[in-house]
Amino acid sequence: MDKSKGMVEAEISKALTYWEKSYLGRGSVSVKSDILRDMIFVILHGILSPAEYSLCQDKEGLLSVKKTRNSLVESGIEELKEIIFTITGQEVISFYTDISTRTGERIMVFKLSNNLENKLS
Question: Is the pLDDT of residue 18 over 90?
């Protein structure tokens, strides 16, 4: 692979922003991806709409927003795995995600089959 770690991280951020807009109908305000050993961490800022923020004022609404948002992302997991594979050449062996209803950030963690950081160094 002749791309730098920073170039691959930027490519992942750009691809996930595009995926969000095309699959979920709206994208985040900013995305930052970091490759660490055999994992890719992605932080997406500005995920929640104003209506979702107001729903999150009570526990029931908060849980509802979290559940719905996580279900939407999980329903696109095969496409997400394909995006990561296309960019990195690495198979995603597990995927984790959660959203902060306080900050409106989503974190995604892709666990890969190999140490991508070593391959890029």
Answer: yes
DSSP 26: S
Q: Which amino acid is at 40?
A: I
d(CA 23, CA 39): 23
Place of tokens 């002749």: 2
Q: How far is CA 121 from CA 2, 34, 118, in A?
A: 10, 14, 5
pLDDT of 39-69, one tens digit each?
999 999 999 989 999 999 999 999 999 999 9
- The H or E element containing residue 7 is helix 5-19
> In this structure, which CATH number among 3.40.190, 1.10.150, 3.30.980, 3.40.50 belongs to the domain 5-120?
3.30.980
Contacting residues for 93 by C-beta, under 8 A, at least 6 apart: 111, 112, 113
pTM, entire model: 0.92
